[in-house]
Structure prediction request, 304 residues.
Amino acid sequence: MGMFDVTNKPDTLRIAVAQATVNVSPETIRLIREGKSPKGDIVESARIAATIAAKKTSDLIPYCHPIPIDYIHIDVTLKDASIEVQAEVKTIWKTGVEMEALTAVSIAALTVYDMLKPIDKTLSIESVALLRKAGGIKGFKEKYDRPLKAAVLVISDSVSMGKREDKSGKLAVEALQNYSLSVNSYEIIPDDAERIEIKLKQLCDDLKLDLVVTCGGTGLGPRDVTTEATLRVVDRETCGISEVLRAYGQRRTPTAMLSRGVSGVRGHTVIVNLPGSPQAVLEGLAVLFPGLLHIYGMLDGHGH
Prediction:
């Protein structure tokens, strides 16, 4: 038991809005409006308490990740017989901020309760609720009228000759299936540029697959030729995909910048080069989805 492992999750914009309602007497509302609350400014105190609470959530809730908070906005509204506190919290990170928003309004409600208890015996915290949350990879939706088909091509002399067991390709197959793609081809070939080129053309032109993921041959070794073979096959490069893969990997492994992997499109098939290590494959696929899926609507002419 403990915090979830979010190591491989990509940073995305996350937003959460929460609200707490404190029931008070109409007379108490009148005193607040007249500035006669015995402990000072209720509204400003609630705002300050909520802001501090949002930033301290991981200190209070055991399994919450400490996260960078980019924005907090607190609204305190006086009703006829209640006080509503609403918090909006934003971050660009790996996990959401609903607990930060909920903690903010909870502490604000308790602050209101503490400040008003000398003059109002009817006080009660009526509700604490999450009103809205948005962002994250689950919030990114793409719709298709057909299932997407994929291939995994492992490129390695040692694996193809049986000197080493393939782990990367099998992990890629499993990961793609978890992203709801059907893997129609899984093959291991040596580091031979001509064979790589022929196989890529077959997967794109004959099998007409949607995605081809290659594993291996992206480094600077004398037999690392996957990049050159791929560049001869693609019609257009998708440089942004390769840039994101390297940037994401570099935050985790100092040598990720040495990967020369490229990506591109041949016809309606997307080809993505991943490094040969199992961890690099998992990290690469984690950052590719679900954003990569948007490319298929673009290729089908549905715009951006």
About this structure: The chain has eleven helices and ten strands. The first strand starts at residue 12 and ends at 23. Residues 98-116 form the longest helix (19 residues). The CA atoms of residues 137 and 290 lie 7 Å apart.
